[in-house]
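Support request, priority: normal
Reporter: lab tech (M.K.)
Component: structure prediction queue

Hi team, I submitted a job for Universal stress protein from Massilia solisilvae yesterday, and the status page still shows it as pending. I've pasted the exact input below so you can check whether something in the sequence is tripping the parser. The sequence length should be 145 residues. Please let me know if I need to resubmit or if it's stuck on your end.
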Amino acid sequence: MFKHILFPTDGSPASVVAAAHCVRFAADIGARLTILHSSAPLHLFSYEPIVVDEAYEEYRRSRDRLCAECLAPVEELARNAGIPFDSVTVEADEPYTAIITTANNKGCDLVAMASHGRKGIKGVLLGSQTQKVLTHSALPVLVFR
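Reply from support: The job had stalled in the queue. We restarted it manually and it finished. Here are the results:
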């Protein structure tokens, strides 16, 4: 069966609930877990290099803090369940590409993730990263609603 599961998290309540299910599943089948948080890179242009450097440094500190906050609840669940895990943070313009790339690079054989269940205009405007992973990944994808 599955030996290495990638669980991407955005830190949302839906993601934390799905993480609890994923951790139980991983424990039941004896799989290890890679926890992923993807953040958008900062795209900034200026004639003044010092402004850009300062902005990137502030953004990096803020991003690192947010990543740690998003990963922490899932790490705690995995730690409490005694599941081997590692955590990864990556920058990507599109989270779904970070999910697929990380799953492939880490040798995962399953992607397990939450679905926010957005419909209508919200779904169109925000897009569904889960749907994009389902569409573009060659790996199996387990979706927790």
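Strands lie at 4-8, 32-39, 85-91, 110-114, 141-144. Residues 69 and 101 are 22 Å apart (CA to CA). Let us know if anything else looks off. Ticket resolved.
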